[in-house]
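Predict structure. Chain length: 433.
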Amino acid sequence: MDTQKIAELDKELIRCARSINVLATLTWPDVYCAHFLETWRRKNPQLPKIQYPGIQNLKNLCDALDAICAKCDTGHPLEKHLYLTADSYRTAAELLNHIGKPKFSELSADLYGNPKDRILNTRLTHLEVAERIIQHNKNSIDALRLEEDQSQMIEPEVVADKLRAKLGPFFSGVSIEIVVDPMLSSLAAASANRIRLRGSGKFSQVNVRQLLHHEGFVHMLTAINGREQPLLASLQLGSPRTTRTQEGLATFAELITNSMDLRRLERIALRVPAIQMGLDGADFIEVFQFFLNAGQSERESFYSAARIFRGGDTRGTIVFTKDALYMRGLVSVHTFLIRAVNENRLHLLRHLFAGRFSVGDVLELEPFFENGTLKEPRFVPPWLSETQTLAAYLCYSAIQADVPTDEITFADFLARDRTIRLPKRTHPHKILS
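Prediction complete.
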C-alpha cells in the first residue's frame, strides 16, 4: 500500500471538495419566503424566481477531480474509496453547472436517487414506504395535529445555548460553535466545527432533542471523527455518496432516542410524494398547496416546497431529489444494524461513526480497521454506548417486522379474550351423595 500516494490524493480531494457545497449553493434566502407568502395571501401567488450564486473555477475543479480519479488504483479498497468520493463530487459540480436545466434532475437522481427507486433488495420503493407511513399514521397524526403552544416555543439563541451546554462537554478538547444564521432556510446544518440554526422562526422543545441527536451526535460527530483519521482525513467530508447513510443514521438516532415525533416523521414522508409531483410536472404553487393541505403552516409549506425546487425550475419537472433518500437511508441503516447484531459483528456499528461512511464502505474497509490503518471513533453517540439495550431493540424490531399488523384488528384481541372454557359439570346426584 502506497500510503504517501493515498495521503496526497486525500489532501487534494479535501481541497477540491471544500469549493463544492451543494446545499449552501442551492439554499433560498428567507426574503423569498416573505415575498411569496405576501402574494399568496393577496390570492395572487407568483412563482419564486431564484438567483443562485455561481461557483468560481468550476471547470478547473472538475479537471482536478478527474485527475484524482485517474490516479486512483480502484483495485485497492482505499484508493477505490477516494475514487468514488472524488467522482461523486465531480457529479455534484456538474449538478451545480446545470441549475435550472433538464439535466439537473438527472444528475440529482444519480447522486441521491428518485422516489420510485427500490430500497435495497426489496420490491418497495421510497415512494411506497413514504405513502405507507403517511397512511398508517394518518389517524394518529390527525388526532395529535395540535397547533404549537407559542408560549412554549423557543428563540433560536436559546436553542443555541441549550446545544452548547450539551455538546460542549461531550466533545471535550474539540472547538465547536453553535451559531444562529438568519440566511439559513433549513432548520439546521452541521459540520465538524459548527452547527448553524435557522434564525427566522422559533423552535419547539422536541426540535431541540432532534437537533441534538441528528446534527450533534451524528453529523457533527462523524465529521469530527473523520477529520481525526490519520490517513483518510477526507472522511470528514459530507460527500454526496455518503448522504444516504448519514441521513439514515441521523433519522434512526431520532427514533432510537425517542426524539422523533409524528409531525417530523410525517414531514419526512410527505417530501417523497411531493418530489414525485414535481417530477411529474406540478409547479411550486401546487406543491406548496400539497403541503398546506397536509396540515403544515404557510411558512413550513413554503420551506418544504423550497427543498424540492431548489436548483430546479419552479414551473415543475426539474427538481432536487435529495429528500427522497431519507426513507431509503433509514431502512438501509436500520437493516444494516439488525444484520450486524444477528451476525455478532457489533464492531461494525462503531465503525459507522468513525467518519462519514456509507454502509458499504464500512464493510469493504473493515480490514483497515483491523490492521490500524483506519482509527476507531473517538466519539460515539450516547445511545450507541448502551450496546446491550440497542441490540435488544434491534433484535425485537427484526421479529416484529414479521408480524402482519395490517391483518390484525381489535376484533382479533376480543375474540381471543372471550374464549371461556367452562368446567365440566358434576352430575347433581353425585353432589347430593
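Summary: The CA atoms of residues 50 and 289 lie 19 Å apart.
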